[in-house]
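re: ur question from earlier - yeah i can do the single chain one, its not a big deal. heres the input i used so u can compare w yours
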Amino acid sequence: EEVTESDDEDNLSSVLHQRAKMPWSACGKYLSAAGILLLPLLLLSQLLKHTVMVAIDYCLALWTEHAISVKIEPETKNCSQCMEFDHSPYSKVFSILCCLGIVLCLVTSIAVEWTGLKVTKKLHSSLLNKIILAPMRFFETTPLGSILNRFSADCNTIDQHIPATLECLSRSTLLCVSALAVISYVTPMFLIALVPLAIMCYFIQKYFRVASRDLQQLDDSTQLPLLSHFSETVEGLTTIRAFRYEAKFRQKLLEYTDSNNIASLFLTAANRWLEEYIGACVVLIAAVTSITSCLYNKITSGLVGLGLTYALMVSNYLNWMVRNLADMEIQLGAVKRINGLLKTEAENYEGLL
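and the output i got, formated as tokens:
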């Protein structure tokens, strides 16, 4: 019995270890199917877009700082003649950056959709060729529903869900990196606290991804009985009233609703915990370092406001980054299942010429 219990513990630990690992093979398969040209275009457009977004915020910070300084300086010196601030150079730069950002957003969206379309077409055609040339023993041992799910549900996930999740993941990741870069530029002392903060975020997201994926699956599994029971109740309403089973079906519906609400509550609480815990640490460190630097006249108030604005948004960016990473991990299972069928050996058949 002791040997059996130890074997079960080893199997459980190995399963938990596998669940905590990212399916890099499926990710590499998806990116390799995208091609050599689309992947650099996607990365370059994302980098340029977020660089322009940071430049827009920096331009606004300088614009506001210079405009306020021009108005305050004559009042402090008791000057009779007030200088008028020229807004035209800043407005021109701001307009050019906004137009460039709109163009880059359009290019990024087209690159993401184009990548998803190309990957879907390539994997679908490869899977179709493998299934057509598969031996008869494959169809005898593989359920037909499993094959249909590869062509329907998994291809739909690769076609519609993975490109959107990939775009959201890259956007939230680059927004988080750019926010941390702006805070580090405004207050270099923030870099001292960035290393332990990054280590803490790594271990938190490692365990959060497993919990978030399980909670999402629990939410889905508790929602299906609720919908099935509701549809069955509506269809058999006449029979239920004839046998006077209204209270029984109402109680069953409330039980399914409570189960689904509990799963949704745990999932929402986990997401909010991730956002508030990490975000509070980042905001506290950024606020202390920014205010300390401002008091010693090392940086201007405009840059302090820019750094604090990005610090307040880091929590949201980190939350979406980890949630999108968990969603991507679930959706890459479709690529992994299709890749498993692509390893099917073709029928060894030599036809007559």
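The CA atoms of residues 6 and 281 lie 40 Å apart. not sure if urs matches, ping me
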